[in-house]
Amino acid sequence: MYICICHAVTDSTIRETVYHGASSFRELSFNTGCGTQCGSCVAHAREVMSEALAGLGVAASEEKLRVVSSR
Ligand code: FES
């Protein structure tokens, strides 16, 4: 399912990115572009990322999932 329409990022892509080491939303955005255009996907992307991190046994702190405003 597409999470980020602007950059065609799916939930699978988010999970794969987490499994390959992304542990913060910043890293996810850097690697996929997710959340860097209109921003409407950010809340849902955070949820998917949090679930993926939990699946790996990594606690998802608010700090790590916080989005830093535009670059
Ligand atoms: S839907 Fe993700 S930045 Fe627009």
Topology:
Blueprint: E1 2-4, E2 9-10, H1 11-19, H2 25-32, H3 42-55, H4 62-65
Antiparallel strand pairs: 1-2
Bound molecules: FE2/S2 (inorganic) cluster.
List keywords for this structure.
binds FE2/S2 (inorganic) cluster, 4 helices, Arc Repressor Mutant, subunit A, mainly alpha, 71 residues, two-stranded antiparallel sheet
Task: Describe the 3D structure.
The protein is mainly α. It has one domain (2-65): Arc Repressor Mutant, subunit A, CATH 1.10.10.1100. It is built from 4 helices and 2 strands. It has helices at 11-19, 25-32, 42-55, 62-65, and strands at residues 2-4, 9-10. Strands 1-2 form a two-stranded antiparallel sheet. A hairpin with a 4-residue loop joins strand 1 (2-4) and strand 2. Helix 1 (11-19) packs across helix 3 (42-55). The protein is globular, with a radius of gyration of 11 Å. The model has no long low-confidence stretch (mean pLDDT 88). Bound molecules: FE2/S2 (inorganic) cluster. Residues 4-7, 34-41 line the site of FE2/S2 (inorganic) cluster (FES).
What's a quick, concise take on this entry?
The protein has 71 residues and is mainly α. The protein contains four helices and two strands; from the N terminus they run ββαααα.
The set of bound ligands, ions and cofactors reads: FE2/S2 (inorganic) cluster
Number of helices: 4
Physical arrangement of strands within the biggest beta sheet: 1-2
| Tertiary shape | globular
- Number-wise, the strands total 2
